Amino acid sequence: MKRKMISFLGPTRYETCEYYLGDVVAKPTEYIQKAIVDIYRNEGIKIDEIHMLLTPEAKNNNWLGDEKLYDQLQEYVNEDKLTIKIHDISSKQEINTIWNLFEIIINSIEKEDRIVFDITHSFRFQPMLALLSLHFARITKNILVDGIFYGVYDPKSAEKKFPIIDLTSFVELQDWITNVYAFIKTGRVESLSDWLNEKSKSIQKVERQNAVDAKQVEKLAKSWSELVGSLQTNRSPQLPEVAEEAINSIENIKSEMLRPIFNPLNELLSNVEQEIKPLVDNDPIFSGIAAIEWCYNHGLYQQSYTLADELVITAICIVQNWDVKEYSYRKRANDIINEAIKITQRPKEHANFLNHEDHELIKELLQYKELLKIINKIKDNRNDINHAGWRKNPLKYDKLEKHFNESFKDYKQHLLKFYKSNLGK
């Protein structure tokens, strides 16, 4: 793993000045690149390679020649074994130039590198491209961003002493974008939860008792993980409880004064809270429908089919005052559903259903033929999924998704109608 610095060199002539980062002041120099290497050196950290991105104008004006940047870096080449690599780039403002520059930056980075990126003399689109390139490399090459720096050089200033601004927090903003997108689109909370935990723990390690907001964020991440995990593994009976814990965590966060790094939570929280509130319903049918909606909205179709199939069984158990968790009652309810489906399909063959011990309930179910038709399709598709397609004429994935999307609205309508009409009879 190498620590590499990547930097743009501008074409303008610069005056000698002092750059400083925090309390560390670099040796006087015209060049921000040398100042950053010197500041790292003062902190006891060695930069192994420096990759210079040079337009023809920058190379002629500031790279080659007596006391130009290449000459000044020789001190570190000799003493620290610094490796210098140059990359010629175009000064043209064209789309092909942008992609070529992206490729140059990415190809200069190897897996597990630690990257220091200086954008002081980057121009127009280049700072944005630098950030995007780093984000891409973090995902594809597992790099660490040591720092993103901008030297506030002002040629008009009388005092030639300028701060270096640390922009590394932009990386954290990119983490927010990536992790929140994954959470909203797929329902996967692991990366967001892990990132929140990592940040909150690092803050608590430094601040100890003062990191109240970080502790609340850690609790929030834990409650989200438990809720999403329960949804992904179809833990229906536990959903109202874990959903309520997640909402309580959200409310606790809202009452805290968050530090800037956690501020994007505020935008996310209101959306998430509205999504999970219906899960808190104490009625298993309404909570179950909310769980199904959450799952299929996040592309979890296997869970959606399983929940939809089991929810009808739960509804029958409730209207019959049977224990919803007792296996024998759930099997009995499922047998009743299957019998009613068979009757709708072959009424002549099952004309003697009145001899069935639950014939009254079967008779009632037969009033909901559309619901039985949908349930039959849900059961068949669930079986197709759970047996991994090892059956005759298995459906393709898009058909399974399409069937559910097209039938859920009617499923919900007919199930609630049956449930409300028979509850308390």
From TrEMBL:
Alphabetized InterPro entries for the sequence: CRISPR-assoc_prot_DxTHG_CS, CRISPR-assoc_prot_TM1812
Top-level lineage group: Bacteria
NCBIfam families in the record: cas_TM1812, CRISPR_DxTHG
Protein name stated in the entry: TIGR02221 family CRISPR-associated protein
